[in-house]
């Protein structure tokens, strides 16, 4: 069994994160950051998704298509709060982003702040109540260390056949930890905070964190990936969160752990 993993916040993974290779080729302290690069065949990605590298706004014309987020969809008010299960926001459709402006960069910055304050490694926009295709993560889990990655509209186009178990947790499921099987590596396409297209392979811890956050963008929650025996070990804890939701909101829980029947295919990256 691999060392325990708590996505967003596992202290036991700090050494693992520190020892892991960078997600992208990183400039050494004091060196000039590598320039943004657009996706191309077999071209390694260097620094293209790192936070704060943008020097200008790259905005596509607003689409009238319902697949894309409107200004209202991207509206938020700090301080952001983590959405807890079983809030229906976590299952809602997350729209693609086609406007890369100051508001989007501010949202990403606010998400990083929440992530670090909650001892996190990654965070998706729906987890802070904004249903768009945006995630931020830093496998080092410490502000000022590692790489701060922002991915917009990510797509997985290939995943490894080898599956690895890790103990995951989630900020939207406080206090719940359990093993989840996931592919060892994934190849992804996405856009960075400026709208530039990127293409990269992630493996190890970065791949694990990415897949957890990517699932959130699909409305998939980490217990959806658990085997039945693992799910049984956390079922009562899930029901306790449902009860807390009902007591706090006065609403009936939109879903219940009593209905969960098994694992979602780990190779399936669709809802």
UniProtKB/TrEMBL annotation:
InterPro entries: Peptide_deformylase, Peptide_deformylase_sf. It is found in: Plastid, Chloroplast. GO terms for biological process: translation. Residues 247-271 are annotated as: Disordered. Belongs to the polypeptide deformylase family. Its main location: plastid. It catalyses: N-terminal N-formyl-L-methionyl-[peptide] + H2O = N-terminal L-methionyl-[peptide] + formate. GO terms for cellular component: chloroplast. The keyword Cell inner membrane does not apply. Keywords: Chloroplast, Hydrolase, Iron, Metal-binding, Plastid, Protein biosynthesis, Transit peptide. HAMAP family: Pep_deformylase. Coiled coil: none annotated. Removes the formyl group from the N-terminal Met of newly synthesized proteins. Pfam families: Pep_deformylase. GO terms for molecular function: metal ion binding; peptide deformylase activity. This is Peptide deformylase. Its EC number is 3.5.1.88. SUPFAM superfamilies: Peptide deformylase (SSF56420). Its cofactor is Fe(2+).
